[in-house]
Design brief:
single chain; Rossmann fold; Arc Repressor Mutant, subunit A; 2 domains; four-stranded antiparallel sheet; 8 helices; globular
Length: 246
């Protein structure tokens, strides 16, 4: 997921960006509302983290301008102002959430996950597709095999099978699951993987897709390439399923 951080304090911005990057997000930072408006005209972000106390145009005005410009991405406001009226004003001007400084990074990350789930119409921190489960809160992926019926008729759940994912493999997997069963656009997937200070070629996406295929196909989940668009997760019919009939 690609985030836009709008914060004029260099030290604060550096700390937040480091924490978000370590959590697996691609983060781009700007120091003013004017710059934020400029970059959002040409580039797509999944969420914006906006400080209120910006020079010239403040964060509330920026949020309002983003909404007036048709931007639907979630906006989380950061501020040292903790008065009720400030929080009400921020929400009324288009913010989706509001955090008061100082704050703890785990809470910020949890709020970001909640906003991203909401924006993608996901209702749980655990994303699923077939037997695949992705726990976004703990960054753990696994395959949950179906229950087995024992000789005495009792159903037993086999243990889950962990799937090891690198940071970028995780980002690709999460994006695919959030889009499923719809296809994921390759260009947007590329944006979710990188920010301004990193470079990744479109062909590199194929590397991560190939690795994920190797980890998913043995468990009945395919990654189909859609020419000219991107990729889609699909369930592979097991032997004997109606889909196997000629």
């Amino acid at each position: 997921m690609r985030l836009l951080l709008v914060e004029d304090d260099v030290m604060v911005a550096s700390g937040i960006k480091l924490g978000l990057s370590d959590a697996g997000y691609a983060v781009d930072w700007v120091g003013s509302a004017e710059r934020a408006l400029e970059v959002t005209k040409s580039e797509a972000f999944d969420l914006a983290v906006v400080d209120i106390g910006l020079p010239l145009m403040d964060g509330l005005a920026l949020t309002q301008r983003l909404r007036q410009g048709g931007h639907a991405m979630p906006v989380l406001i950061l501020t040292a102002r903790d008065a009720l009226q400030d929080r009400v004003q921020g929400l009324d001007m288009g913010a989706d959430d509001y955090m008061v400084k100082p704050f703890e990074l785990p809470e910020l990350l949890a709020r970001l996950r909640a906003l991203l789930r909401r924006s993608q119409a996901a209702t749980s921190a655990t994303l699923t597709f077939g037997s695949l489960e992705l726990d976004t809160a703990h960054r753990q992926a696994c395959i949950r095999p179906p229950a087995q019926t024992m000789a005495d008729g009792e159903s037993v759940l086999p243990p889950t099978i962990p799937i090891e994912l690198g940071p970028r493999e995780w980002t690709v997997m999460e994006y695919l699951l959030l889009q499923a069963p719809k296809p994921a656009n390759k260009d947007k997937l590329l944006q979710a993987l990188t920010g301004w200070d990193k470079e990744i070629t479109p062909n590199a996406i194929e590397v991560y897709i190939s690795r994920l295929r190797g980890k998913l196909e043995p468990h009945g989940i395919a990654l189909r390439s859609i020419r000219g668009f991107g990729y889609r997760l699909e369930l592979v019919p097991s032997a004997g399923d109606p889909g196997d009939a000629p």
